[in-house]
Design a protein that fits this description.
With 573 residues, the chain is mainly alpha-helical. Helices cover 71% and strands 1% of the residues. A hairpin with an 8-residue loop joins strand 1 and strand 2.
């Protein structure tokens, strides 16, 4: 009896010691992870797995150690072994997120710019707090393009740490396009701490035009109210940028009581200030006397003269109409197009003038801008659509929206966009999106040739223009536009079918489209696969999790990054 009792005691001690040793091994692994020593954690975990091969806790700790050490391929293999032994762990949300973030964080250290860019975009798409640390890291990147892209994404989060980093960048950043994104981001976040710094940028005569305009927009967004004396100080500043800012604030806040401050600025030495003062009068529909605006009609700067005529047109003055007609039919095409933008922006007041010039002008861009204005007022729709179709077919060069002389007057124009290092074929990208805006209008009006053109773009080798074509059609159109794209799901051309499914998945979360994307994924090229994963992540349906887990085994890091981001979004929905 004593022997049997002793035997059972020994067995119990061995079991108890085994459990203690197993717990101790797991604790040691997590200790290494806490002190951020993932290499030691992996070494410790490998030994523990050999000692306790049937311990689920040890296997989970090993998986986390592999993820922390950036060994995401080995981590995925360990995940499969874990599920084979303990299938219930497929519902372990924390482990899935850990696995996905290991993929995203590893991509941060890639030598390929495109991989790092996609890791940043994918991480920010998750809307997860873990993405904040990644954004902070990219804001300190030595690559200016990555810094600018990170700055553009920060308003999605708005954390105080990110705002402090943006303010720091504003003071030390020297690359102009990064500074633009930083200013835009701080303006979007309505960070009032930067008001003084932005005023310095606006007031500095050496500031680039684009930076000055961006700073003014950001500053105006910070104002919800302003005192009279502060506004007087701005309007009487010896810096033209601050005087222009005063005009923008008056218009933005619709301070009709402050109109007397605008009158002296109509004679300002700076043409930009004169334009802004006239814009404010026009936007607030101030019934100014003819004598107040008349001097500007003969201004030496055409943009000011055209803006003054626009103000009078809004007041129903025949003089404004006649002057704009003269500009529309002048020999200088740039001024013709600026005047066309002014007429299009005048709404119902410019309808008669637009109809008249549409018959007389020979400039397709002038006619197209006027046609868009008429369509906006639902006047001469059939004629205007024909003008746009003719322009799309006959003007084979690149297009753009001209917005330089006066930001209120957008006009279609031949492209003068230059190539930039950061975006391949940038002029062509601008051309695609400009033409797509026109196509969206034609689609809304039910023009039969618009659908044909959309289909042509969907067959284009460039995914971006094709996707944007259908997306613009859906964003700007109605139920009929939705039916147009849904019909393309049955098109015999695989590329059209997949791209239509991509847009429907993003825009409408159509489950049929989602099924098509998963079905066709294996036969697609790598670029299209990336867009498919983007769409699946946007929908965020949990039924896609098994599919995305398979993609994590892909040999290409870029696809694993996109799949990891989509997986996190599916888990968070």
């Amino acid at each position: 009896m004593r022997r049997e009792l002793l035997f059972f005691v020994l067995i119990f001690c061995q079991i108890l010691y085994g459990h203690q040793a197993e717990d101790s091994a797991a604790v040691n692994i997590y200790r290494h992870l806490v002190v951020k020593d993932p290499i030691a954690a992996v070494i410790c975990a490998k030994g523990a797995v050999q000692l306790f091969p049937e311990s689920k806790e040890i296997h989970i700790a090993y998986l986390k150690a592999l993820c922390a050490n950036g060994e995401e391929t080995e981590a995925i293999q360990e995940w499969e072994r874990l599920l084979f032994k303990w299938p219930e762990e497929k519902e372990n949300r924390q482990l899935l997120e850990t696995l996905c973030w290991s993929v995203l964080l590893k991509a941060e250290n890639s030598s390929l710019l495109l991989v790092r860019l996609n890791s940043l975009l994918s991480a920010s798409s998750t809307r997860d707090a873990k993405a904040v640390a990644l954004l902070l890291s990219y804001l300190d990147s030595s690559n200016p393009f990555l810094r600018s892209f990170a700055a553009r994404l920060t308003p999605r989060f708005g954390d105080q740490l990110l705002q402090e980093k943006l303010i720091e960048l504003l003071h030390r950043e020297n690359v102009w396009f990064v500074r633009l994104e930083v200013i835009r981001a701080l303006g979007s976040l309505h960070n009032k701490e930067i008001g003084g710094e932005l005023e310095k940028i606006v007031a500095n005569p050496k500031t680039l035009f684009e930076e000055k305009a961006t700073a003014i927009i950001a500053l105006v967004s910070l104002y919800d109210q302003i005192g009279h004396q502060e506004l007087v100080a701005l309007s009487q500043s010896n810096r033209s940028g601050l005087r222009q800012l005063a005009c923008e604030i008056i218009a933005h806040l619709e301070l009709k009581r402050e109109v007397p401050l605008l009158i002296p600025l109509l004679k300002d030495s700076c043409s930009d200030v004169r334009c802004s003062a006239l814009n404010a009068l026009g936007l607030m529909r101030i019934k100014s006397s003819f004598k107040v605006v008349e001097p500007c009609l003969q201004d030496s700067h055409p943009a000011v003269a055209i803006t003054a005529a626009w103000v009078l047109l809004l007041q129903g003055e025949e003089r404004g109409k006649e002057l704009l007609k003269g500009w529309l039919l002048s020999e200088d095409s740039a001024f013709c197009r600026l005047a066309a933008g002014a007429v299009a922006a005048s709404g119902k007041y410019g309808v008669d003038l637009a109809k008249e010039v549409l018959q007389k002008s020979s400039d397709n861009f002038v006619k197209s801008t006027l046609a868009l204005g008429l369509i906006g007022q639902r006047k001469q729709i059939k004629k205007s659509c024909e003008v746009l179709i003719t322009a799309l077919k006959s003007e084979k060069g690149l297009w753009m929206w001209e917005e330089g002389e006066n930001p209120l007057f957008r006009a279609l124009s031949p492209s003068r966009v230059r190539h930039i290092e950061q975006i391949p074929q940038y002029p062509k990208v601008v051309d695609h999106f400009t033409r797509l805006e026109v196509l969206a209008v034609l689609s809304m009006m039910g023009h039969p040739k618009a659908v044909e053109t959309i289909k042509e773009l969907l067959q284009n080798e460039t995914w971006g223009s094709a996707g944007a074509a259908a997306l613009t059609l859906l964003e700007e159109g109605d139920e009929e536009s939705l039916l147009v794209v849904q019909e393309l799901l049955d098109d015999p051309d695989q590329k059209i079918r997949v791209q239509a499914a991509f847009i429907l998945a993003i825009f409408t979360q159509d489950m049929r489209a989602l099924a098509i994307l998963q079905e066709k994924y294996p036969v697609l090229d790598r670029e299209m696969k990336m867009h498919v994963l983007e769409a699946i992540g946007h929908v965020g349906d949990s039924s896609c999790i098994p599919f995305l887990l398979q993609i994590l085994k892909e040999p290409y890091l870029m696809l694993r990054v996109m799949a990891a981001s989509a997986l996190i979004q599916c888990l968070n929905h």
